[in-house]
Amino acid sequence: MLLRPVRDTEEDAETVRKLAEAAFGASHALKGDAPTAPPTEARAARSREKIRHIVRHDPAGSWLAEDHTGQAVGAAQSHIREGTWGLALLVVLPGAQGKGVGSALLQRTLEYGRGCLRGIICCSRHPAAARVYRQAGFELHPTIRMRGTVDRAALGTVDGAAVEGGPRDRDLLDSIDRRLRGGAHGPHHTYLMRHNRLVVADDLAGSGYCYIGADGKVALLGATSRRLAKRVLTAALLAVDEGVTVEVQDITADQQWAVDVGLDAGLELRAEGFVCYRGLRPPTPYIPSGAFL
């Protein structure tokens, strides 16, 4: 097996994307989930863009594993922001699992973040992944996923001002990040703004933000208080088009404010996976991004 850096090219980005598609598809089947539809070209292009974004900003944090024939069998991506390390992706082809590929990739990304005091990983329900991350010294915090169409009448109105955000809010967003997770997201906000609607609240009671995509998925949320967190999450859910299925992932037990919003909105809850932390107490009020954490 050979490990090599992922290059900032469409070819390498497509290789990583296909590895992730195959690995996640097999994982869903193992857990008894319904198979997902093949990605549209627009969705595939966005996945490649995200992969290249991470490679561009953290070239030493992205790795491909190739077998003796040169075929790619696994990939990992990680990034560092102001002393906070995050694992954005770790995937291994089903036929190559159990052969040390994932452990080797994880070790290489951990070496990239060896000078960081804090680490975050969003982990699926796959038992092998949880075991590997725990052995690497991370605390595992079980999570909830909320999903469904929003009952607007039951959810009610937003408790206070919440407006559409943009590039002018970068300093505010980074300040909230530092308070919650010890490091700003920095350039990740540029990517998230490009592909999601941003809701921002900022007044004497505190500050908060929430990204939500046109597909109804909450991408990232942070706030200085539960009240502000509930406000921006409520505003984000109400901003989704009528009939769109919304989804909020990686909600830990510390985020009961988010559970309350989801229940009010009529969303279904289920146990999903883990958020893993090292050198950092679970930030709250906070909902991480699976890739940007």
TrEMBL record:
<keyword id="KW-0012">Acyltransferase</keyword>
<dbReference type="InterPro" id="IPR016181">
    <property type="entry name" value="Acyl_CoA_acyltransferase"/>
</dbReference>
<feature type="domain" description="N-acetyltransferase">
    <location>
        <begin position="1"/>
        <end position="156"/>
    </location>
</feature>
<keyword id="KW-0808">Transferase</keyword>
<protein>
    <submittedName>
        <fullName>GNAT family N-acetyltransferase</fullName>
    </submittedName>
</protein>
<dbReference type="Pfam" id="PF00583">
    <property type="entry name" value="Acetyltransf_1"/>
</dbReference>
<dbReference type="GO" id="GO:0016747">
    <property type="term" value="F:acyltransferase activity, transferring groups other than amino-acyl groups"/>
</dbReference>
<dbReference type="InterPro" id="IPR000182">
    <property type="entry name" value="GNAT_dom"/>
</dbReference>
